[in-house]
Amino acid sequence: MLRVLFSPRWIGMTLLAIAWAAVSVLAAHWQWTRYEDKAAAAHAIEAHYTAEPVPFASVLPSPAALLGESQQWTRVSVTGRYDAQHTFVVRNRSQSTGVGYEVLVPLDTPGGVVFVDRGWVGNAAAANILPTIPPPASGEVTVTGWLRSPESDVDRSLPQGQLATVDTVTAAAQLGRTAYQPYLVMGGEQPAATTPLTALDPPSTDLGPHQGYSVQWALFTLFGFVFVGLGVRNELRAGRAAAEEAGEITPVPARPKKVRIWDEEDE
Question: How far apart are CA 14 and CA 10, in angstroms?
């Protein structure tokens, strides 16, 4: 068996099996990491989404503060005044009702600017025309909502006031003022705007298929070695059959059939 296994052909096949196993391990690890990320996100949503709101400053005491993974979707309330003249729109945002824009408005608070995602508006009749955006309430407003970390900048060149993602770093740079990086997804406000925007869809807690895919890829690590084992066994059997036919070795006699009691009774 070792002579066959260490032949150039099966050495190459074994190396391929090892390479396949390595790829499968990496894929299984990536899928498991995706599962853990989604599980952590779902846990944060379940822990915070319907909780009683806490003061904004108790979670983010200064504009330099960032959100930890377990703090995502923390429900908070904050009081300030909207700077509606510097409203930002985030393009190509999907909702259950269609595709449009999310509306990001700076809220001036004693600690600094907080960007509030006030909701969604549908696309206008033409792609080069922005939809009409109802203004927020003027004067002092108390906003209740959920904290989220900013999205990554995708480095797209867009007109002033338009964003490709909810990238508060870019928005703050355009605004030219100190602002918190985490933003607030609005759940409600007092006093409310005369014409409210469409509320964003609730976050999903679906974990997806990643855990199952991880298990599948873990099992796939064995396939190459099973293939090599079966191939070596078949080659050994074929070689032995050829040697027996050529008279080079004596065939192994078949094991006599064991007579069972009920077989004797049938006779």
Answer: 6
pLDDT level of residue 226 (50, 70, 90 thresholds): confident
Q: Could you list the residue range(s) of the whole structural domain that residue 158 is in?
A: 52-190
- Quick check: is 42 in a domain? no
Specify the pLDDT at position 1. 55
Which pair of tokens denotes residue 47?
């822990």
User: Are 56 and 31 contained in the same domain?
Assistant: no
Contacts 24+ apart (CB under 8 A), 258-263: none
Residue whose tokens read 């822990």: 47
Are residues 142 and 86 in contact, defined by beta-carbon separation less than 8 angstroms? no
- Taking the C-alpha atoms of residue 261 and residue 267, their distance in angstroms, rounded to an integer, is 10
Residues 11 and 59 reside in one and the same domain = no
Q: How many CA atoms lie within 13 A of 58 on its CB side?
A: 8
The domain tally of the chain equals 2
Chain position carrying tokens 């002033």: 160
pLDDT per residue as tens digits for the range 102-160: 999 999 999 999 999 999 998 887 767 888 899 999 999 999 999 999 998 876 778 88
Separation of alpha carbons 101 and 220, rounded Å: 43
How many C-beta atoms lie closer than 10 Å to residue 147's C-beta? 22
